[in-house]
């Protein structure tokens, strides 16, 4: 999921449970329009790979993600901006407040995606 803040999801996709998040995140990034001005892209450490960071830079975003501890050449990142990642985590927490989402009652992907869209709309109207 790509979200603008704690209340606004920009885009999301459903992926199999055994698939790593980074390739799916890169697919979502490619669907976004090119940034006109520098826009911070706050990411989880799962997306800290060189390929994802380079794609974000190519699309005009400023990636904000801490390097893993064992990375040979760590980079600097905006620590103050990275603290705002909790806003996105709050969006996930509110979505999981819908029992139908956190327990995955729906067998069909289309029904599950439809309910996620409904939950995002209901959350946005609050």
Structure in words:
- This protein is mainly alpha-helical and 126 residues long.
- 45% of the residues lie in helices and 10% in strands.
- The chain has helices spanning 21-31, 50-58, 79-82, 85-96, 99-102, 109-125, and strands at residues 2-3, 9-11, 39-42, 61-64.
- The longest helix has 17 residues, at 109-125.
- Determine Rg (CA atoms, Å): 16 Å
Please identify the oligomeric state.
single chain
- Shape field: globular
Structural class: mainly alpha
Order of helices and strands: EEHEHEHHHH
Number of helices: 6
Instruction: Give the number of domains.
Output: 1
Primary descriptors:
126 residues; mainly alpha; two-stranded antiparallel ribbon; two-stranded parallel sheet
Short structural description:
By secondary structure, the protein is mainly α.
Give a topology summary:
Layout: E1 2-3, E2 9-11, H1 21-31, E3 39-42, H2 50-58, E4 61-64, H3 79-82, H4 85-96, H5 99-102, H6 109-125
Parallel strand pairs: 3-4
Antiparallel strand pairs: 1-2
């Amino acid at each position: 999921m790509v979200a603008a803040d704690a209340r606004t999801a920009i885009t999301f996709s459903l992926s199999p449970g055994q698939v790593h998040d980074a390739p799916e995140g890169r697919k979502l990034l490619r669907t976004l329009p090119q940034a006109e001005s520098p826009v911070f892209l706050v990411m989880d450490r799962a997306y800290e790979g060189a390929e994802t960071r380079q794609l974000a830079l190519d699309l005009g975003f400023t990636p904000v993600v801490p390097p893993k501890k064992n990375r040979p050449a760590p980079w600097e990142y905006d620590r103050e901006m990275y603290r705002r990642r909790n806003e996105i985590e709050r969006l996930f927490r509110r979505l999981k407040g819908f029992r139908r989402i956190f327990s995955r009652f729906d067998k069909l992907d289309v029904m599950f995606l439809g309910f996620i869209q409904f939950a995002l709309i209901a959350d946005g109207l609050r």
